Known about the structure:
Shape: elongated
Distance between the termini: 35 Å
Largest sheet: 9 strands, antiparallel
Helix content: 25-40%
Oligomer: single chain
Amino acid sequence: MVLLAVAAVAQNNISLPAGTTVKVKLENALTTFSSKTGDPFSGRVTEAVVLEGKPVIPVGASVQGRVTKVSEPRRIAGKPTIAIFPETVVLPNGERYMLNATLVDTSLRNGTDVNDEGQFKGKGHEGKDVIEIGMGTGGGMLVGGLIGGGKGVLIGGAVGATATVAHWLGKRNSAMLPAGTELVMELSRPLEMTAAIGGQ
C-alpha cells in the first residue's frame, strides 16, 4: 500500500521543461482595432504535449491568458502589434495549472511575424503605400497644372496630397489574429504540474 501511494505521488509530480512547445488553436479573434490591454483570450491544444512517452497536456485542453499590448501606429513607419500572455492551462478534467509561455509563431503568413519578445506583428504599410502617396500628390499637381497653369500646380498638388493622405488613413494599419489561428508557444519556465490551482 505504501509503495502504491508513493508511485501515485510520483506520477502527479510532473514538470514540463522550459522550451516545451504547446500548439493551440485560438478561440476568439484578437485585433489591434478592437482588442484592449487586459482582454482575455483562450485557445484549445491541438497536439498532445508528451513527456517520456506519456501525454501530459492532452488535445482539447484549454490555454487561457490576456492581451498585454495593443499598438496600431498611425504613421507609415512601424508595425501594428499584439502581445499576449498565456497564464493558465486547464485540463479536460478541470485541473488548472499556472502557465508561463511565450508566443513564438503563428499559422499566419502574408508579411506577419512574431518577434523575439513574443509579440505578433502585422505587416504594416508596404512600399506601395508610399508610392500611392507620391502618385496621388503628383497626379494632383499634374491635374492642377493642366487646369490653372503654374499657380494651379501648387493648388492641385495640395488637393492631391490631402486626398491621398485621407485615403491612406482610411486603410487601417491593423493586425489581426482571427479565431482558428494556430499559435505556437514555448514554455518560458518549467510547468510544474504538482498541485492544481483553484477554479475561478
